[in-house]
Inverse folding.
């Protein structure tokens, strides 16, 4: 990797989590800071709290705290970019085997893709519904949730919270 470019953002994973949230790739700001969803315009931490995954809003610099609530974080492609549109389709295909291996290794019950773009590239399907999917990935139940990026204005905060809350309810132990 070029020395002037941010290093990949480390995953925050543990064995047998309830949910692993899977972003498209790290934003360059997050990779430079060394923490997930660090941009002030990203709604991930607020959404996660309001959906009931955490009892308080986790600050990005405390992102490892997410493990305390049975959740983890990873990305499909580890190359940081300013915008996910900078990624080539082949980068998703190239990353799919390693991601599936990672998911099998950590064995979460649910894998939540943040946005349709990455899951569409991995599954080869252009038509992806929101919410739970029919297929599994690495033996985890797959969900597709709206991307909480501040650039994604197609979803309000309330719509994000509703979608994430549906996953939280499905992921609760019976």
């Amino acid at each position: 990797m070029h020395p002037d470019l941010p290093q990949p953002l480390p995953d925050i994973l543990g064995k047998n989590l309830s949910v692993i949230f899977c972003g498209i790739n790290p934003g360059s700001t997050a990779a430079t800071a060394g923490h997930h969803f660090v941009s002030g315009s990203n709604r991930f931490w607020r959404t996660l709290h309001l959906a009931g995954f955490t009892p308080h809003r986790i600050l990005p610099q405390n992102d490892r705290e997410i493990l305390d609530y049975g959740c983890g974080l990873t990305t499909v492609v580890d190359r940081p970019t300013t915008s996910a549109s900078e990624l080539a389709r082949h980068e998703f295909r190239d990353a799919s085997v390693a991601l599936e291996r990672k998911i099998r290794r950590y064995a979460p019950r649910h894998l939540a893709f943040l946005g349709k773009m990455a899951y569409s590239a991995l599954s080869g399907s252009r038509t992806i519904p929101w919410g739970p999917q029919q297929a599994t990935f690495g033996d985890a139940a797959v969900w597709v949730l709206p991307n909480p990026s501040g650039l994604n204005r197609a979803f309000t905060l309330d719509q994000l919270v509703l979608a994430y809350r549906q996953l939280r309810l499905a992921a609760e132990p019976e």
Observations:
- The chain has one domain: 19-171.
- Residues 59 and 102 are 26 Å apart (CA to CA).
